[in-house]
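Worked Example 4.2. Read the sequence first, then its structure tokens.
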Amino acid sequence: MNYRAAFRCFRGCPGEYSLYDVIYTCPACGGLLEVYHEREPLRQRSAGEWRDLLNGRAGTSEWPYGSGVWAMKEWVIPDLDDDNIVSMYEGNSNLFWAERLGQQIGAPDLWIKLCGNSHTGSFKDLGMTVLVSVVKQMMANGSPVKAVAAASTGDTSAALAAYAAAAGIPAVVFLPKGKVSPAQLIQPIANGAHALALDTDFDGCMRIVKEVTQDNSLYLANSMNSLRVEGQKTVGIEIARQFDWEVPDWIIMPVGNLGNISALYKGLQLLLNLGVIDKMPRLAAAQAAKANPLYRSAQDGFAEKAAVSAQKTAASAIQIGDPVSYEKAVAALRASNGVVEQASEHELANAAALADRTGMYACPHTGVALAVLFKLVERGVIQSHERVVVISTAHGLKFTPFKVAYHQSQLAEVSSRYANPPLELPADVTAVREALAMRLGE
């Protein structure tokens, strides 16, 4: 079928632009663009036919439809040449039924979407497969683009570097010096990206990358580029599919630059438009209290955008004070009757540790979302009978120093309630037995 997608101004200015043009913002108003999919061709398939199509593709080896993103190609970039798709079979991440944790906090129908179980260890793979694939087609069509570039607090740079390396496209990443975990720093280095550690924060890196990408030879890969959103929106669609097309009551997500929650809403809204689902979940945006511009804006009903100087937080990937996708996120929260809540360093660290004690291995950003979950349940905003999905955005192994410092009780502003350091003993059977008797008898 003749499916069609193009860039349009998110604010509604007239005009359409090709997805293969080097363009990031509306020429008329300067606002963000979004990828608009014509609905009528999509409605030629019934809701049931769409469900059957996606169910049949999920996790198969058929190129490229086995990917959790490209299984939905008609809803992502429908006219992309399959030969230019750069995929590592991202997506298809599992839903973990957090039964023990849910019972402990009074939310027994609690699920964790483990997006960190992906090629580079974070949900950023979902958007980067789309962006790099489009760039590959642009270059094949004679575009002046020579490389891709992004500012990053870690996970974006890792995903960009890996997908660019797979495509044979040079990548340039701008990182805030000393503010990225060692595991996140080494990923783009290992994949051959040109890594620039700048003596500033993420917002400073973002200002610079927007300047240098005004030259059309360097293509901007941050989430203000709406192509990223097209990949990231598939996480909501995938959650619906995994629940046999019955959406949960709540989805909670840690947010920083705000592209992810607007993407989540966009995917769910498409399902509603096509009749594939019959309701919109309530969305909850979770912020670190050290970097909480959206939370501050929400206190007066989003009357105006707040910008802060983001302070150091263990949730480094969302240490962002001036989020690019603010307007999109506010629209998503309003349309979904959503909420915004924050978590302190103490709260996020202990939430992650409590989750770990029930079988997870939560990154600090997931800790933010879990801490917000605990607050919403305690206040009765989330009811015990409601189904809740928390999106875990990255794998805990990318944040080993955070985990080690927690269990050594060395995290600033954190009292480690669940610290579990190793017990050092002599190599003596009696001493071991006595220690085990004390531990296991508790």
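Now turn to a second chain, presented in exactly the same format:
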Amino acid sequence: MNAYFRCIDGCEGKFSLTDIIYKCPKCGSLLEVHHDADYLKKKSASEWKETFSSRMGTTKWPFGSGVWRYKEWINPDIDDENIVSMYEGNSNLFWAKRFGGFLGMNDLWVKMCGNTHTGSFKDLGMTVLVSQVNDMIARGKKIKAVACASTGDTSAALSAYCAYAGIPSIVFLPADKITTAQLVQPISNNSIVLSIDTDFDGCMKIVQEVTKNNEIYLANSMNSLRIEGQKTIAPEIVQQFGWEVPDNIIIPGGNLGNVSALAKGFSLMLDLGIITKKPRIILAQARNANPLYRSYLKNYESFEPVKAEKTLASAIQIGDPVSVKKAIKGLKDFNGIVEDASEDELADAAAVADKTGMYTCPHTAVALAALIKLVDKGEIKKDSRTVVVSTAHGLKFSEFKVGYHESSLKGIESKHANKPLRLAADVAKVTEALEKEFAARTSK
């Protein structure tokens, strides 16, 4: 096996990627996908770069995908014909010139992971997981459906990829805690949608029980196949920079699989000689759901789950993240920082970012708010090359934006609200209103 599951805490044993297993049978810790270093080192660093550059943008199946471009690093043994892909990834790096200018930064970039099929970075992991399930079914494994607990984006990705493959899907959603746009995605893609009177952590407990008999496959990020797809954010960023490593990468986190995925991607590139330096990985959490930030303040000496309070950043409203051990290890390995953002801070960060041409989801706004605070503290140097990972498209959260600009979000001051001007159909009054607006905006 060129890739297999193994325990993150080092217990003996390796398990095939076709095994339905999510935790170590000896200690109960999460598993990770381990790759055969000898197999990967058959190619030199320059050969890997040439291979990946030649595949970028191609229509040759499945390498045009921003995930499957790196197939040998993800799941080398799967049959190409069983891969379920919608050419996810390949998301742009947005030069945040004006937003960076507000902070005195000229080298600030936003990795637009929401510019993908279902509008979030979850597609990157779901193509790998659903492809593996599709391969297992093709080989005779009896799997009735694939299921996940979700705060919205995971359910959208799972339902779309399963619909594409013709595999039934089930999503467990916390009732009245996700946006309409997020709810309608799995409904449209024919998932069995269960709206549960609990929060995400409660849904997570239920889905783990439902999937115990192995007839329903678990698709949450405790399944480390997801991490393999998400880790491609790291090589794609580096490749987009001409194989240069940025100084800092800021990513919002809830269940924390994305943090460990970034670390895994950069670690692999270091091992293979693709890169020679480490970026600093920075995790941003909403203050109303910030258990890892609290642990960071105590130098990770202990970690206590919290009861997540309601936050505008609903996708990261998670108080008991399953990937916390992986995340802490990744942050330690990459000189990491954890910062949090209040509801006012994230809402205002989104509004300011949007004024510079973005359309920012509230989770990305948490990362932008953390950036502002860390630059102010001097933790991030203004001349550093910094990448903020945008995890979803803002169109999924237009209710949040409407509420901000109408000043109707509970407890939010909306300092940068931009309300439409209701005017009579009178040229003189329109001209007068425009002159007032020009004067007001020029003075700011």
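Notes for the reader: Residues 220 and 367 are 23 Å apart (CA to CA). The radius of gyration is 22 Å.
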